[in-house]
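Quick one, T. Sequence first:
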Amino acid sequence: MGNGPMHSADSNTLAPRSETDSIALIVIILIVSLFFLWGVANNLNDILIKQFKKAFELSDFQAGLVQSAFYMGYFVLAIPASICMRKFGYKAALLVGLCLYAAGAFLFYPAAAAHDYSLFLGALFIIASGLAFLETSANPLITVLGPTSGAAWRLNLAQSFNPLGSITGVLIGQHFILSGIEHQPSVLAAMTATARQAYYASESAAVQVPYLVIGSIVLAWAVLIAIVRFPAIANVRTDQKSGGFDVRHLAHNRIYVLSVVAQFFYVGAQIGMWSFLIRYAQSTVPGTPEKSAATFLTFSLVLFMIGRFTGTALMRYIAPERLLIIFGAINICLVAISVVHPGQMGIYALVSASFFMSVMFPTIFAVGLRGLGDEDRKLGSSFLVMSIIGGAVLTAVMGAVSDFAGIHHAMVVPILSFAVVVIFALCAQQSGSNR
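Structure tokens:
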């Protein structure tokens, strides 16, 4: 892959050569659809932060715990996902992930009935646990379904469908969860205790039906995965001859280690920016309705999706590391504008940054796994998924900064994060040029 142009993609880049075209196509569609499904869950959180802030009277830091609970699930379950994948193969890990995802979604119903924020956080943790299994297995599986030279291109293409799920998640939240009813503190204080509790309960209950539908769809998808015959590589077990994990190869691979660090900061920047975009819009442009503010998030995700497809096309001519450097540097400048010029200009800058974030996750993932053997790839994938904990840590940090100094100052955190991504890309580019 190096610094030269990518090889031209063909059907063999996507489909396993040992399968018939029709079977291969069905398998690829099923796997790519998983990227859509976890995009729905990821970006519904951005709506939930706003919704729970109303329903439970939360501070920015407390609302940020939505992402903390969610991405803690990734951190805790990534290694178990890798163990499952090693012992039973990629397909088994996908099935476990889908079942956990569905279970967490179904738990939203009793959590809303009890109007208990901690139960919601628990349900989000279970959903994220399922996504840890899905991402730990689906990402590396895509990289091995074809020539190694096209791994980054192939993963970027598959990840291009993730924003479609993200957009769907935001639209579900915008139209079926957000009520548009926003009472000022003075109005809430003037209500009777019964009326106030009825309002909170109503806002909490708004999540029940959407998550029941999502859980049902995810469960149906698990059935499809179970009955469809997958390529042999999806069932390969690599743990028969190995007594446990050996991280020495990974620990001595400088680019891999840096990829884990870069992924931590990138995910933290992405999740933090999207989580607080509605808050930023309403805070820096007073009077902005929540549904209008949510539209900015939708625009961000549309640009993110366009950026994925654009970046995938550019990678046929520009090395992934070089593209990462360019996009990272642009985002440092855009997010800096949101700090210096809060308001409409800052909103537009944050929305635009989503286009350039688009290639970062899959490119860091693919470059980090490049050159690894099958067992190291499975173990390495789990650590890269664990690094998604950055979404929990840095979103909470941004919430704390926002409570202390204002939401626009919290955007300094993503600026520093994109700088780490650029440093990783520079190191990966230098390593490639030395091979």
